[in-house]
Amino acid sequence: MNGSTRRAVLATGAGAALATAAAGLTYAAGPAGATGTPQADVGDDGIVPFRGERQAGITTAAQDRLHLVALDVVTDDRDALRDLLTRWTTAAERMTFGAEAAPGGVVGGGPWKVPQDTGEAYDLAPGHLTVTIGYGASLFDDRFGLADRKPEALRELPAFLGDDLDPARSGGDIVIQACSDDPQVAVHAVRNLVRLGFGVVAVRWSQLGFGRTSSTSQSQVTPRNMFGFKDGTANLKSEDTAALDEHVWVAPSDVPGAAGWLAGGSYLVARRIRMHIEIWDRTPLMEQEQIVGRDKKVGAPLGGSGEFDELDFAKKGTDGEPRIPVTAHVRLAHHSNLDGVRILRRGYNFTDGTDGQGHLDAGLFFLAFMRDAHRQFVPMQRALAGSDVMNEYIEHTGSALFACPPGLGADDDWGSQLFT
Amino acid sequence: MNGSTRRAVLATGAGAALATAAAGLTYAAGPAGATGTPQADVGDDGIVPFRGERQAGITTAAQDRLHLVALDVVTDDRDALRDLLTRWTTAAERMTFGAEAAPGGVVGGGPWKVPQDTGEAYDLAPGHLTVTIGYGASLFDDRFGLADRKPEALRELPAFLGDDLDPARSGGDIVIQACSDDPQVAVHAVRNLVRLGFGVVAVRWSQLGFGRTSSTSQSQVTPRNMFGFKDGTANLKSEDTAALDEHVWVAPSDVPGAAGWLAGGSYLVARRIRMHIEIWDRTPLMEQEQIVGRDKKVGAPLGGSGEFDELDFAKKGTDGEPRIPVTAHVRLAHHSNLDGVRILRRGYNFTDGTDGQGHLDAGLFFLAFMRDAHRQFVPMQRALAGSDVMNEYIEHTGSALFACPPGLGADDDWGSQLFT
User: Fold this and answer.
1) pLDDT tens, residue by residue, A164-209
2) DSSP reduced 3-state for A244
C-alpha cells in the first residue's frame, strides 16, 4: 500500500474510528516499544515508524527536505507544557503515517468547529515524514521544576572564533525537526504542532532546508552542498550500529540520576552556516579542492580515486607536500585528527532570500547528532574555527544545542517521558 | 532517455564538443523556432523545451518548486547588460536540459580555472526546469537607451487598500523565475545566473516557493494553499489556447512601435502575500468556507458537489441567502463579476522563518501572467482589496510587475531580442 492509498483509506474514517484505525496501523507497521529495531528500517510505503527504541529522524535515511522550528515556552504552567507534549505526540504520530493531525482533521469536526488539521497536506503522501523533538538548556530553568533533570552536558556551547551569531536564530526551549521528501508535508507538520501549542509556545526561529547534505544510510547517494561538493561521504551511517552506540546515543552512564530520561537519546547541534557563495564561485577549482580536501567531481579524497577511498593523510605529491593539505577541511574534521571524535551529520542546504547586500543568503544548515556535544562538536569546531581555510567563505550565524530523548514505547508520550 | 541518463551523456563531453552536442539535443527535443508548439507539450524525460513561440514557465504545467529572483542592474554599460542577457540565454538553455551552466562546467575547465558551474545540481535531473525572464519598468529609464521600448502597460501598479509593501521585497529591473520539481535544481539555476551577472546585476530580493498553488494544465491535480484549500481550480489552463490568446499573451496591437518586442509575451505580477495562518487556524470550518466560497475537502463551489462544478452565484440556501456569499473570494475574483477578466495564476506556498512575533512567516507567493496587468490584475485586486473578507487574514508585503518577452527562435537570444 503506498502512502497515497493509505492516506485515502485513513481519510475515509473520522473521529474516534479514525484514531483507532490509525493507531492500529502504525503499531502494526512499526516496532511497538523498545525493540531495538533500527529506525532506518523503512518500508517503501513512505511511512517511517514513529515509535521504537530511538526517535525517528536521526538515523532514518535522510529525507530530501526539512522544516525545523525552535520554540520558546510562553507559560509558566507546568501542566500546560506537559499536556502539550502529550498532544504533540499523538499529532506527530498520526501525521507520520499520513493521517490528519487530530481526529476530525480538516473537515470531520463539522461546520461549526475549528478544523483540527490545517489541510495543506490533505492529499499528500507522508514521504517518509519524521518528527523529532529536543529540549534546550533554557527549558531546565526554574519554570517547570525540571532543573534537577537537566543533563550535565546540556550546557551552552562556547563561543568559537569567527562566530557571528544572531540571537534571533539561536537557542530555544524546544526544537521540532520535521523531515520529509515532500517539503509541504514537513511544513504542514511543523505548522500543525505550532498551532496545537498556541498559548503555550511561540516560534523563536525556523529554518527551511531544500536539499539534504548528508547521507545517513549506506543505501543513499551522497548529495552536494552549496559549494558544489559532495558532502557527508565519511558520515556515520545507520548500518554501523557499534559506531552509533559509541558516538551518537547517550549511554545510561552519561546521564545518572534524574537526567536518566535522556539515556538512549542524543544531542542535536544546529548551526546556521551562511556561505559566501559569490566569493567561492570566483575561486579556481584546485583551490576549492585543496580547501575541501576532496576532488569536486567524484568526491574522492585528494590523492585517491573513488569517493569512498580511505583518506591518506601521509601521502605526498611530487612537490613533497601532502596531497591533502594540512589545513584541508576533511583533515581537520577527521576523527583521526580529533582523538576519534565522530558525529552523525544530517544537514540541509538553504536559501533565505537575500542578505540585503545584493547577494543570495544561502548556505548550509548544519545539523548533527552526537552523544556529547562538548566532547565531540566542540573540539571539532575549535579545530575548524582555528585553521580551516574554508572560514574565509563561511560564517556561523545561528547556533543551538538540544537534548533529544530516546524513542517512545507503545504507551509512552513526550510529556510523561520528560516529566516522570 | 531519462534526465539523469541524458545528464550523464552530456557530462562526458567537454567544452565546445559539449556545447554542440547539447545544442543538438535541445533542438532535436524542442521546437527550433517560432513553431507555435505549445510549451506545455512536455516529454516525460523531465526536459521542457527552452525555445519556442512562448517562453517556458508560463503555460508549462506548473512544477512543484520555485526559486525567483529580482535583480537590479548595477552598471550603466548598455553593452555589458546586453552581453549578459546573451550569456544568460546560453546558460539557461543548457541548464534546462540538464547540462552545466557553461562549457567546462564543474570541473572541465581544469584546476587553474574558476569552475563555470557551481556544481550543486551536477548529479540531478532537470525535473522540468524552466527559466523565465522578465523586465521591470525601471529598466526602461535613461540608463540603457531603452526608454522608447517601454511598453505602455509596464507602469507602476497603483496602491491597493491594505497594502503593506516592503520596498526590499518589491520591484526590480529584471526577474528570473526558475521552476523545477527539484528545488535544488531551481536554486542552482538562479544562483548560476546571478553568478554570471557579477558586476552587472545585484540581487534585490529572492523568494523560494516550496509547493505550487496552481495547476496550469488540465492534467494536473489541484494543489492546496496554506489556508488548506484547493487553489486555482478555475485557473486558465494551457489547453485553452483561445483563452490564453485573449487573457495571457500580449497581442501585437497592444505594443505598437518600438515596444513591439513584447508581442507574444506576457506580464507577470508578483505579490508576496503573508497569511496570518495562526488566526485562520482558529476560524471555524464554515466561516473558512464562506470566506473562500468553496468547500474545503473537495474544493466544490458552495452549493455544488464537484471541484469543477460551475460556480452558481444565483443559487440560494434555505435561509434565502446566496450559497456563495456576496463577499466570498471566488465570487469577487470571478470573471463574471469582473467584466470577463481572467488571469493565469502560477503561485507558490512559502515559509520564510519567523515574523519575529512568535509566528511562522508563511503565505502565498502570488504569481500570475496576463496580457495587461492594469486591465486585469488591477480591477481584480481592487475588488478583492475592497470587499474580500479574506483580507482579515492576509497582507500583501511585496509587489512587482514585469514584462516577459515572447519565446526565442533558434538563433535568438534575450540580448538581441530586447535591444534590436
Assistant:
1) 999 999 999 999 999 999 999 999 999 999 999 999 999 999 999 9
2) helix
Kindly tell me the burial class for residue A217, based on how many C-beta atoms sit within 10 Å of its own C-beta (0-12, 13-18, 19 or more): middle
Residues of A in contact with B208 (CB under 8 A): 208, 210, 351-353
Tell me which residues of chain B, numbers 80 to 109, contact chain A at a CB-CB cutoff of 8 Å.
106-107, 109
**Chain B CA closest to residue A104:** B285
Using left for φ > 0, alpha for ψ between -120 and 50, and beta otherwise, residue B303 falls in left
Domains of chain A: 1-134+168-209 (3.30.70.100), 212-404 (no CATH)
3-class SS of residue A278? helix
What is the structure's pLDDT at B43?
Answer: 55
Instruction: List the 58-77 stretch of B: residues with Cβ below 8 A of A.
Output: 65, 67, 69, 72, 74
Q: Residue for cell digits 507520520?
A: A96
- Cβ atoms of residues B330 and B301 within 8 Å: yes
Q: Indicate yes or no: CB of B354 within 8 angstroms of CB of A208.
A: no
Q: Which long-range contacts (CB under 8 A, 24 or more apart) does A154-158 make?
A: A154/A267, A154/A401, A154/A403, A155/A374, A156/A401, A157/A269, A157/A373, A157/A374, A157/A377, A157/A378, A157/A399, A157/A401, A158/A378
- Helical (H) or strand (E) element with B272: strand B266-275
Mean pLDDT in chain A?
90
Candidates A210, A295, A358; nearest CB to B184: A210
- What's the whole-number mean pLDDT along residues A258-265? 98
In chain B, what residues touch A120 (CB-CB under 8 Å)?
211, 224-228, 349
Q: Residue B420's pLDDT band (boundaries 50, 70, 90)?
A: confident
Enumerate the residues of chain B whose CB falls inside 8 A of the CB of residue A191. Answer: 226, 277, 351, 360, 362
Pairing assessment for the beta strands A130-136 and A174-180 based on DSSP bridges? antiparallel
Instruction: Report d(CA B323, CA B302) in Å as an integer.
Output: 6
Rounded to whole angstroms, what are the CA distances from B177 to B70, B130, B191, B368, B375? 9, 8, 12, 12, 23
For residue B405 the three cell numbers come to 518577452
Instruction: Tell me which chain B residues have a C-beta less than 8 angstroms from the C-beta of A224.
Output: 119-123
Q: What is the pLDDT of residues A370-417, one digit of tens each?
A: 999 999 999 999 999 998 899 999 999 999 999 999 999 999 999 999
Residues 284-323 on B with a CB inside 8 Å of A are: 284-286, 288-289, 295-297
CB contact under 8 Å between A351 and B206, yes or no, is yes
Q: Is B226 on the interface with A (CB under 8 A)?
A: yes
By the 8 A CB rule, do B37 and B53 touch? yes
**B207 touches A at CB < 8 Å:** yes
CA of B47 vs chain A CAs: smallest distance (Å): 21
Residue A415: what pLDDT?
Answer: 98
User: pTM of the prediction?
Assistant: 0.91
Percent of chain B exceeding pLDDT 70 equals 90
Which grid cell sits at B207? Answer: 523568494
pLDDT 10s digits, B106-155:
999 999 999 999 999 999 999 999 999 999 999 999 999 999 999 999 99
Tell me what ipTM this predicted complex has.
Answer: 0.91
CA distance A245 to A264: 9
* Alpha helix ranges (H) inside B266-353: 277-280, 285-292, 329-332
User: In whole angstroms, what separates CA B368 from the centre of its chain?
Assistant: 7
Residue A419 pLDDT: 95
pLDDT digits (tens, 9 = 90+) for B158-186: 999 999 999 999 999 999 999 999 999 99
HSE-up of A134 (CA within 13 Å, CB side)?
Answer: 33
Residues of chain A in contact with residue B226, where contact means CB-CB under 8 angstroms, are: 118, 120, 191
